[in-house]
Design a protein that fits this description.
There is one protein chain. By secondary structure, the chain is α/β, with parallel strands linked by helices. It folds into 3 domains: 22-347, Purple Acid Phosphatase, chain A, domain 2 (4-Layer Sandwich), CATH 3.60.21.10; 354-590 and 657-663, 5'-Nucleotidase, C-terminal domain (5'-nucleotidase,  domain 2), CATH 3.90.780.10; 594-653, no CATH class. It has 17 helices and 31 strands. Residues 1-12 and 567-575 have low confidence and may be disordered. InterPro entries: 5'-Nucleotdase_C, 5'-Nucleotdase_C_sf, 5_nucleotidase/apyrase, Calcineurin-like_PHP, Metallo-depent_PP-like. Belongs to the 5'-nucleotidase family.
Length: 672
């Protein structure tokens, strides 16, 4: 265990005196949590129920308030609803009941809060027991922060009035495909200073003693921000009087999936602040920034000692000391019984929904290894097309996946495909990335993917956006005959599959750059794709979404299109496959699928059988809240059931019909 103690504790900051009044403020902080179910970290099996025990162990030491709350703050710094295996089914709905029960006080949104589109996020926040911040994004239609997010929030703890603001970096906004066009970024430091003026005004409404910024931003950007807004350490205050400066007192950040504490803290147990980190080179011990790891692995216990600032100062209180402790969830950490009960209920909701249909297939869908790992396969072709369309709705040049992504090892007969079938086919939480590669690298990747044929290896490639001719008779490493980028084509063969139209060849020696959609696993050199490792990432895994989540999102978007078109046909004509894929993702980003979604319908039905409230936030999420036409008294339940039945009928009518096909984009000339 490492401990840092200030070597300049004998120095008194500007404007302080040995007799200054001090106040203690307790904070528990965490960020970037995804997988509530059991997962292994350094060989230890942890889950959200064990994390909850750690959190309660911290908060039970806090004083009780008259209002029944604890006299401290529980703060969350973004990325709750996605990505995870569970979220690919629930769109994050399983997370809020669990986090609500942990008594979180305040949160800032992270980039993954937008994975299912802003309308879905808006609906989710309607069931949140705590406010969510987004201070530096403006809805240009209203001139205010987007509803229902808040520009700031003020709480009182330990007699201290605390202004809380939420700031996000600009860097991750371009990676959100469905980012609303009317959402405008504002400089983090400028917004922080402006809100400081408003919240600290001694003649104003809020009269805040301190301001804490919740951020979802990279470490380097947080360090820069901390310097700009004078979130300075006690030692740095010895040479800079911050009591006269508007800004922020402390940054509690997320987005980086590591545990990191700036060097300016007074004392920290369980973490060595002097461990070098490339992104933290500008941390000279002068700033106060806290990052609390990821995925229910880490939790931070923070104790602030605040002193009164001199009279007439801009800041009413100053951080005199900041001490903390890192808590790490272990395999032997006890399970929190109350959270376990909620978790079990959420898992049951998921399990009950798996039998619900999500689409209809018109042809057999073969996921056997003997098929998909030795030749161009229907499933591979469909996956490649959808993943390409998911990133900027088709801006990528192509897609490269490995057939090992697809599981099930069975043939699905024509008819209804269930949510459980989809989960079986795509069991991995492999996030999509977009990388920049040259022609040479693309050729090497294809040679590697085809090198183990006829062995049924998971590296066998699945592609879209380009076609490849290869010869299985040749020696490994010499099998690729040519690669061509493809045009979007409207030409069809007599059986209805697209005719591939070459756009341009990809030369083996070409240094031209191509944008390729792939998975994090391959991008890290997995399954023999070592040439992809260390290639430039335009969208990295932390900003990407899992493939299984994107497939479900695509199907949900198709349901929206089917519902809205009312043209009497649900079959996806291959002629329109590319355009429809882009349109489906766009629809899913800008509209709520709602009760068309099989999980949401199943969950709503189970919830309704248990709900005894006339007005209920979760019922409102499903559109089942009063006033329902003609519903009074006992008739309210009947009215809600009628809404669900109608939604089930519409869900059935709008089920997308998929016509799988193979079009020759990965052609073995030895079999021609």
């Amino acid at each position: 265990m490492s401990t840092l103690k200030s070597t300049l504790s004998w120095l008194l900051p500007f404007g302080s005196s040995a007799g200054s009044t001090t106040t203690t403020l307790n904070i528990a902080h965490f960020n970037d949590v995804y997988q509530v179910s059991e997962h292994k970290v350094n060989g230890e099996a942890i889950d959200v129920t064990k994390f909850a025990t750690l959190l309660e162990g911290i908060t039970t030491k806090w004083k009780n308030r008259e209002d029944g709350k604890k006299d401290g703050l529980i703060v969350f710094s973004g990325d709750l609803f996605s990505p995870s295996i569970e979220s690919s089914i629930t769109k994050g709905k399983h997370m809020l009941p669990i986090i609500n029960a942990m008594n979180v006080d305040i949160a800032v949104v992270g980039n993954h809060e937008f994975d299912f589109g802003y309308p879905e996020l808006t609906a989710l926040l309607g069931t949140s027991a705590f406010p969510w911040l987004l201070s530096n994004i403006i809805d240009t239609n209203t001139g205010k922060v987007p509803e229902p997010l808040r520009e700031f929030h003020v709480l009182e703890r330990a007699g201290v009035r605390i202004g809380l603001i939420g700031l996000v970096e600009e860097d991750w906004i371009p990676t959100i495909v469905g980012w609303p066009e009317n959402f405008e970024f504002k400089d983090m430091a400028e917004v922080a200073r402006s809100l400081s003026v408003k919240l600290r005004d001694p003649a104003g409404e809020y009269k805040c003693d301190i301001i804490i910024a919740l951020t979802h931003s990279r470490i380097a950007n947080d360090i820069t921000l901390a310097k700009e807004v004078f979130a300075l350490s006690p030692t740095a205050q010895a040479s800079k009087d911050i009591s006269t400066e508007h800004g922020v007192d402390l940054l509690l950040g997320g987005h980086d999936h590591i545990y990191w504490i700036s060097k300016g803290v007074t004392e920290w147990n369980g973490y060595d602040v002097n461990i070098p980190l490339e992104d933290a080179q500008e941390d000279l011990g002068d700033v106060l920034v806290v990052k609390s790891g990821t995925d229910f692995q880490d939790l931070t216990d923070i104790v602030l000692t605040l002193r009164d600032a001199p009279p007439e100062s801009v800041r009413r209180k100053i951080i005199q000391e900041i001490r903390g402790k890192r808590y790490t969830t272990k395999g032997e950490t006890p399970v929190h019984k109350a959270i376990k009960d909620i978790y079990d209920k959420e898992v049951k909701y998921i399990e009950d929904s798996l039998k619900e249909p999500i689409c209809i297939i018109e042809e057999e869908l073969d996921t056997r290894s003997s098929y998909i790992r030795t030749q161009e396969a229907i499933t591979d072709c469909q996956l490649g097309l959808r993943l390409r369309s998911s990133q900027g709705y088709g801006k990528a040049d192509g897609t490269l996946s490995n057939s090992g992504d697809i599981r099930g090892d069975r043939v699905y007969s024509p008819g209804r495909l269930s949510l459980g079938d989809l989960k079986t086919m795509f069991p991995y939480n492999d996030s999509v990335v977009v990388m920049e590669v040259d022609g040479k690298t693309l050729w090497e990747a294809m040679e590697s993917g085809l090198s183990r044929w006829p062995s049924q290896e998971g590296r066998f490639p699945s592609i879209a956006g380009f076609r490849v001719e290869w010869d299985s008779r040749r020696e490994p490493g010499q099998r690729v005959l040519g690669i061509w980028l493809l045009e979007e084509s409207s030409q069809l063969t007599p059986n209805g599959t697209p005719i591939l139209v070459d756009k341009e060849p990809v030369a083996r020696s070409s240094d031209r750059k191509y944008l390729i959609v792939t998975g994090e696993y391959l991008a890290n050199g997995g399954d023999g794709y070592t040439m992809l490792k260390d290639q430039k990432l335009v969208i990295n895994a932390e900003n990407g979404q899992p493939k299984n989540q994107l497939v479900k999102k695509f199907l949900g978007g198709l349901q929206l299109l089917n519902r809205d078109s009312r043209e009497g046909t649900r079959t996806l004509d291959s002629l329109k496959a590319g355009q429809l894929a882009a349109a489906a993702f766009s629809a899913a980003d800008h509209k709520r699928v709602g009760l068309l979604d099989p999980y949401e319908r199943s969950r709503a039905q189970k919830h309704l059988s248990e709900c005894t409230l006339v007005e209920c936030a979760e019922c409102a999420l499903y559109g089942l809240s009063p006033p329902l036409e003609g519903a009074v008294g006992a008739g309210i339940l009947d009215a809600k059931q009628d809404v669900l039945r109608a939604a089930g009928d519409e869900g059935e009518r709008s089920l997308p019909v998929i016509r799988p096909f193979v079009d020759g984009r990965l052609r073995d000339v030895a079999k021609m």
